[in-house]
Design a protein that fits this description.
- By secondary structure, this protein is of the alpha+beta class.
- The chain is 45% helix and 14% strand.
- It has 23 helices and 18 strands.
- The strands form four sheets. An eight-stranded mixed sheet has the order 11-7-6-8-9-10-1-16, with helices on both faces. It has a six-stranded mixed sheet with strand order 12-18-17-15-13-14, with helices on both faces.
- β9 and β10 form a beta hairpin.
Length: 663
């Protein structure tokens, strides 16, 4: 039966794989044509104040202990042997009656005393800030923006200047409370109408969210938004510190050299785009800078305790301390690279991804501690990376989408202009100890980037629209293709993480979707069993996709397993309790994120990704555009191209099953 399926797929797969790498890149390029500029975000103030819904957002409920214990067993079952599962069931039953009950009750009591926030928020911040591993590859994702629709506006300095102006306009609207609230609209014809927004506006803030929810418009938590700007993660021993300091400047890195650049007036209004571009061009063309042999930015890629100690030594010099304060208080950081990137072949698309994920590690032209950095290639392709402790994807994606539209809001071509303020190089005076540490960390980070495999791949002809025609949910379909690909390559099922946002709740962060389910495992086993009919395989695939939808809904509603257990574990650690569950084989298996996934699609973006979170695993950035499927995969120990091709093979097989067996 399996042989028949493979035979039937041979011609179909051959047709797809006959596309050359260059043709695949061309298809991706077509899919990344810039979207139409359909609105000017700041043309008029929002009817609703930006934080209008914040006070009345629903609170993130703590799941029932019995539900978490039951769902935990279900989550770990596909990862364990029968003997391990039997032992786990006993451990969980004991936990529910003893330590778990005590910790759950404590968590509920603590939550009742802190109604201004969520039960997960403080511990989640502490988890990020106490992590000692380097930020790049481990914690800092990247996103690549699509080009400006007007070709002449894509020169590096001008394109960067447009994004800088757009970001300052966004920041000002946020601070003046004229930025539209972040709302997930299910019936936009009603909830986006002026009359309904006025209804929400005049509703008391204590109930405004519930008025909006009644129209299936779900306000999202915006408490992270103020830390988008002027924020840095300051390295400290044991636990870092988030620091926000107002300013009207950015810091620009070029060839590892930092420059202070004023980009707003005293009232915070952005300088004209052409003047900002002139100041950037002064750095690129007029400064005498050569490659900095000892770029201090290299230390922001170091282990956090090491960087904390070195920063203290650097700050002993008053000028160095002032320089660091200038960087810390910058609105954000701009990194001008002296390498060009393009999409002329699949190999160069992968190279572009590497450039924005980690850059040329030997040049140290990054400052990883800032809330986000705007990255600009020599030929004007813009990207960003962001430090993850202060916030999650909702805030970053709102800025990214709005900034792209604002940066592309008019068709004015750049005008030549001279900088009205001289550029200011931030010159550090470094000891031999610090210089040696910089050299060491440049090499260490370079070696890490070189041992990491990376592959970008696309599947043309089957995107969101095609999957809708097949009557399957794109995310569930993609997640099952990952499970089948991993099973086909390695003959096993391993823990899979997919991030779900709980931003629909006050101070919500994320929850884990555990995509390796009993249903997905049964489907994958059936696909490798010749005695199973295609009709049965189809039913098992549909059951797996349905289960994925169910656990996704649970996670989005804050009813997952991971965060509840995490909060209880943190309480146990503070009391020096040592529940057997948290030392068990099953808990270790659940936290080995061998396949770590996140969907990254937006019509303003053309690429995105992140590093693997486990030494033996994959970091999988994926998306379904209207006409193609996209993968950007990283790994330290496995072949990424083998995995992407195995995923596309799985997609072929699943697509065939749907076409032949659906009724």
């Amino acid at each position: 039966m399996k042989r028949c399926l493979r035979g039937a797929l041979h011609q179909q797969r051959r047709t797809r794989m006959e596309l050359s790498p260059d043709e695949l890149a061309a298809r991706l390029n077509e899919e990344t044509a810039p979207p139409k500029i359909i609105y000017d975000l700041l043309k008029e103030d929002s009817i609703l104040p930006t934080m209008h819904f914040q006070k009345s957002l629903p609170r993130l409920a703590i799941p029932k202990l019995e539900d978490t214990c039951k769902n935990y067993i279900s989550s770990v079952k596909p990862l364990l042997t029968p003997d391990e599962l039997s032992q786990t069931e006993k451990i969980v039953a004991d936990f529910e009656k003893t330590d778990g009950k005590k910790l759950h009750d404590q968590l509920v009591a603590k939550d009742k005393m802190n109604k201004h926030t969520s039960y997960i928020s403080a511990d989640w911040y502490d988890m990020y800030l106490s992590a000692r591993s380097p930020l790049p590859l481990n914690w800092s994702p990247f996103l690549v923006f699509r080009k400006d629709p007007v070709p002449d506006r894509n020169a590096a300095a001008f394109r960067a200047a447009c994004f800088i102006e757009a970001s300052i306009d966004f920041k000002n609207a946020l601070e003046k409370s004229t930025l539209k609230p972040e709302v997930f609209h299910l019936k936009p014809d009603t909830s986006k109408s002026a009359w309904f927004q006025y209804l929400c506006k005049y509703a008391p803030q204590s109930v405004a969210s519930y008025v909006s929810i009644a129209a299936q418009a779900y306000p999202l938590d915006m408490s992270q938004f103020p830390r988008l700007f002027n924020t840095t993660r300051v390295p400290r021993i044991i636990m870092d510190e988030l620091k926000t300091t107002p300013s009207n400047h950015i810091v620009v890195f070029f060839k590892g050299n930092p420059y202070k650049v004023t980009v707003a007036d005293k009232e915070g209004k952005s300088l004209p785009v052409d003047q900002i571009a002139a100041r950037l061009n002064a750095i690129i063309f007029d400064s005498p800078a050569t490659q900095n042999e000892f770029p201090v930015g290299a230390l922001t890629a170091a282990e956090r305790n090491e960087w904390a100690n070195l920063r203290e030594e650097i700050e002993l010099d008053s000028e160095n301390k002032r320089n660091l304060e200038i960087i810390d208080s910058a609105i954000f950081v701009v990194c001008l690279d002296d390498e060009s990137v393009d999409m002329s072949s699949s190999e160069k698309v992968t190279q572009m991804g590497r450039q924005f994920l980690h850059g040329n590690a030997l040049k140290g032209n990054r400052w990883w501690d800032k809330s986000f950095s705007l990255l600009v290639s020599k030929n004007g392709i813009c990207s960003c990376n962001f430090e993850h402790s202060w916030g999650d994807g909702v805030a970053v994606m709102r800025w990214a989408n709005d900034a792209w539209h604002l940066a592309s809001r008019n068709s004015n071509n750049p005008r030549s202009e001279k900088a009205t303020e001289p550029i200011q190089l931030l010159d550090f005076r470094l000891s031999d100890t610090v210089k040696n540490a910089i050299k060491k960390n440049l090499n260490t980070f370079h070696n890490e980037t070189q041992r990491m495999d990376y592959d970008v791949s696309v599947y043309p002809g089957l995107g969101k629209e095609g999957l809708k025609k097949l009557k399957v949910k794109p995310d569930g379909f993609m997640q099952q293709s990952f499970q089948l690909a991993f099973r086909n390559l390695y003959g096993e099922t391993r823990c899979t993480y997919e991030s779900a946002s709980t931003s629909g709740f006050k101070h919500g962060r994320t929850e884990a979707i555990r995509a390796a389910t009993n249903e997905s495992k049964a489907f994958c086993l059936a696909m490798n069993n010749d005695s199973v009919s295609n009709a049965d395989r189809y039913q098992l695939m549909q059951a797996a996709i349905k289960k994925h939808g169910e656990i996704t809904t649970q996670a989005l509603m804050g009813k997952g397993v991971d965060r509840h257990l995490f909060a209880m574990r943190k309480l146990a650690e503070k009391q020096r309790m040592n529940p057997e569950l948290f030392n068990s084989r099953s808990y270790a298996a659940l936290n080995e994120n061998i396949i770590s996934t996140s969907t990254l699609y937006s019509d303003t973006l053309m690429l995105g990704g992140f590093g693997p979170v486990h030494e033996e695993g994959f970091g999988v950035g994926y998306s379904a555009t209207p006409e193609l499927l996209f993968l950007g995969v990283t790994s330290y120990s496995r072949s990424c191209s083998d995995f992407t091709q195995a995923v596309w093979k799985a997609v072929d097989e699943m697509k065939y099953l749907i076409e032949k067996e659906s009724k």
